[in-house]
Write a structure and sequence with these properties.
Blueprint lengths: L1 H19 L7 E2 L16 E5 L4 E7 L5 E4 L25 E3 L13 E14 L12 E15 L5 E2 L4 E3 L7 E6 L2 E7 L1 H7 L7 E5 L10 E4 L1 E2 L5 E7 L7 E11 L26 E5 L6 E3 L1 H8 L4 E4 L4 E4 L4 H8 L2 E8 L7 E7 L5 E3 L8 E4 L1 E3 L7 E2 L1 H4 L2 E6 L7 E6 L14 E2 L57 H36 L14 E2 L6 H5 L19 E2 L17
Length: 589
């Protein structure tokens, strides 16, 4: 009897454990760090455990191939990078140092200098644990450990490194090194390992970096995505070796709700303004490792000309004029910077991602600067650099990648929501299958995700050109009471009586004239010319294609690009037959 009860208990416990564990591969989220990082943001970070025993290291999500981790040798005493955690391979029993050069590289962050590094493999745990499921430990995790380095502004001022990055996969399932004639050493990448181990349904991820300042929580799933982070049109295209290319067609300024804080409702054409060499499109990379939006100087200047900002050459950035009354109005209003791209690499279709100015009101903090400084994250490119939309842009964009779709990978981009966004609990995210070449957006409205945060401008608020610092954008400067009259009450009354008498006399005269005309026409046998016309007036007709008929591009969410103009219409006369019984009748008096 006792043995039967023992067997029954064991079977029951097994059933409970099986019921608690996830059934089959599902998307897996990450553990987010309890603090934010970065002197240019701040930004949300992923909490990881590296080595054996585990060392807690926080990393920004982004990049491809190997992850960047800061080593213990980076700081001889205390430095800023210690806050996010420093990795010491000497203290891990599972660490392996690789000396050869890797095949494939991580993205650059445009600002780092003086880097020394080593390639290290070690055990890593990047994903959140699920009750009933085994913990995930990735062996031979692929990383490059920086032991020296610093960041440098264009003016030459330097500051210490802050935090590394967690790479999110690559075009290959792993990263290989030559090994002196022996079999290649392979570094493990997170999404490919999870897929190969049957933990997730595909070698993929879906990411929205969110915003610390605006309270938008981050979202990162391997093997899937959070559907509430995908709004509107989704563009899908092929990726490059270690970057995501896409054609940028235009940049515009618009307003989602209410009145505009500018002296226009919308303004397009900012991408190529003052630069004929850009042409109809500019290929850009979407790499959210670097912090800024890196565009041609002419484009940044065109955007800045509409805003209360000034360029600071020593930083290579545009600083907000925070004393300008338009500054607060703009960054709290529903105004945005719209980025229009080719949709699915089409030559005729396009989609736009709107980045509210509230997300472009970022702050540089010490040690990068001596005091907190509000800045617009548009950084002019050098002549040899590639335009790149970095982390500042990614605050408003969902970005996903399916690294393996029948051997041909696809990356996705869509509008991301604002602060009013529900967060999916573990296991509720949408799966991305290995063959998927699309992601399904939610039905949420983008404006609704921002409505509780924005301060729409009312109709009685002054619209001021932000380039004039002396002007005010406050409605308090405008009087809401009616203007006072300088005419006496007696004069007003006299004017009213005179006008009434005049109207009576005119009406009497018109009635008398009409009555005499009708009487004369009866006497002469004439009638009013009220009859069906024997020859109709010209009928306006036009036969053209849909585009010529006004079905061309239309204004969308503040875009100032006008719709297609209709061609001049031809006039053609069409004869019309008289219906039976069509007669002229005389009006009865």
């Amino acid at each position: 009897m006792a043995s039967f009860l023992l067997l029954f208990s064991a079977v029951s416990l097994l059933k409970i454990a099986y019921a608690a564990a996830p059934a089959g591969p599902i998307p897996r989220s990450v553990t987010w760090a309890p603090k934010s990082y970065g002197v240019e943001g701040p930004w949300w970070a992923v909490r990881t455990q590296l080595g054996t025993p585990p060392q807690i290291i926080d990393l920004l999500p982004g990049g491809s191939f190997q992850s960047v981790v800061f080593g213990a040798d980076l700081c001889s005493t205390f430095c800023d990078a210690q806050t996010a955690g420093l990795y010491n391979s000497d203290e891990s029993s599972t660490a392996f140092t690789q000396t050869g050069p890797p095949i494939g590289t991580n993205g650059t962050n445009f600002m780092t200098r003086g880097i020394n590094y080593t390639y290290v493999f070690d055990t890593m745990s990047p994903v959140a644990n699920i009750e009933g499921a085994p913990d995930v430990h990735i062996p031979s995790f692929d990383m490059v450990v920086w032991t020296t380095g610093f960041n440098e502004f264009p003016g030459g001022s330097k500051y210490g490194l802050q935090i590394g990055n967690l790479a999110l996969g690559a075009t290959d399932i792993n990263q290989s090194w030559p090994n002196d004639g022996a079999p290649r050493a392979n570094g493990t990448l997170v999404p490919s390992f999870l897929f190969d181990a049957g933990i997730t349904p595909s070698n993929s991820y879906g990411l929205h970096v969110g915003s610390v300042a605006m309270g938008i929580p981050p979202s990162l799933y391997f093997g899937g995505y959070e559907q509430s982070r995908v709004l509107g049109l989704v563009t899908a295209q092929s990726y490059g070796l270690n970057f995501f290319p896409i054609d940028l067609l235009d940049i515009s300024i618009g307003v989602a709700v209410g009145n505009s804080p500018f002296d226009f409702t919308s303004k397009a054409g900012l991408l190529a303004q003052g630069n004929a060499s850009i042409g109809p499109a500019l290929q850009v990379h979407v790499d959210y490792n670097p912090p800024y939006i890196y565009l041609p100087r002419s484009t940044c200047d065109a955007i800045a000309a509409e805003l209360p900002v000034h360029f600071e050459p020593s930083l290579g950035l545009y600083l907000w004029n925070t004393t300008n009354p338009n500054y607060t109005t703009i960054v709290t209003s529903p105004s945005f910077l719209g980025f229009t791209f080719r949709l699915n690499a089409s030559i005729s279709q396009k989609m736009t991602i709107n980045v509210p100015f509230s997300l472009l009101n970022l702050t540089l903090t010490p040690p990068a600067v001596t005091q907190p400084t509000a800045y617009l994250p548009c950084s002019p490119l050098s002549e040899v650099s590639v335009p790149n939309l970095g982390r500042a842009f990614a605050q408003a964009a969902f970005i996903g990648v399916n690294w393996q779709t029948d051997g041909q990978g696809t990356w996705f981009m869509a509008q991301a929501p604002g602060p009013n966004t529900p967060s999916a609990p573990e296991g509720v995210a949408t799966s991305m299958q290995a063959s998927d070449r699309f992601v399904v957006p939610s039905t949420d409205d983008w404006v609704d995700t921002w409505n509780s945060t924005w301060k729409p401008i009312e109709a009685d608020t002054a619209h001021v050109n932000s380039s004039i610092p002396e002007a005010t954008a406050s409605s308090s400067s405008k009087s809401t009471s009616p203007p006072s009259s300088h005419i006496s009450p007696g004069a007003i009354a006299g004017t009213a009586v005179g006008a009434l008498c005049g109207m009576v006399l005119i009406g009497t005269g018109v009635w008398f004239i009409v009555r005499r005309v009708k009487k004369n026409r009866r006497e002469t046998g004439m009638s009013f010319n009220i009859r069906s016309p024997r020859k109709p007036p010209p009928v306006v007709t036009y036969h053209g294609d849909k585009r010529d008929g006004g079905f061309g591009p239309q204004e969308v969410q503040g875009s100032a690009v006008p719709g297609a103009q209709q061609m001049s219409k031809q006039q053609t006369e069409h004869p019309r037959k008289e219906l039976p019984g069509d007669h002229a009748y005389e009006l009865q008096s």
